[in-house]
Write a structure and sequence with these properties.
The protein is α+β, with helices and mostly antiparallel strands. The chain contains two helices and twelve strands.
Amino acid sequence: MAEKIGQVYPRSPANDVHKHDVESATANAEELQKKKRMKYLIYGVAFVVFQTIVIVIFSLTIMKVKGPKFRVRSATLESFNVGTSNKPSFSASFEGQFGVKNTNFGQYKYDNATVTFAYRGTIVGEAIVSKSKANLLSTKKINFSTNLNLASTAISEWSSDLSFGILPLTATSSRLNGKVTLMFIMKKKKSTQMNCTMDLVIATRSIQNVNCK
């Protein structure tokens, strides 16, 4: 039998199935890659947002430097003598404790300072605060001891204070200068001053109502 020229043979079903499988596998691979890229993008955005939040919190808390608080924590009289209504004078042995409160996330090193005690604007005593340091998030406690003396002088409120039984005192300081060290490398200057009031109660020979701003 003579061979038929130009005869078209039908495609094998097996070839169609194979081609479909290849196309399906390619589509699945592309879809999988797309999902992976989207997942990585979401992770990347989430990481950036997280880092931004951390940096903002870090800047607003740890890296924010606040001035320390310099206050009288306690005060007592060891001895006390007072004059008369016609003779404004008193003397006292005075001791107690100052505090330098450091609320920063870094050590605060400060220089020398002087605390001045006064009655009605008249200086009656002083205490020296030597240079030292207050650790991070802590209060440096400083013990002090001094003598308070008021010589006979004209003070218009003396008689009323004496009859009332209370001598109002103030405790103020020279500027306490220092530096806060952050992350062991960053240093920022911060200073503060003491501004406290207290009552010397004659009847009980004690210091009461210590109040600091």
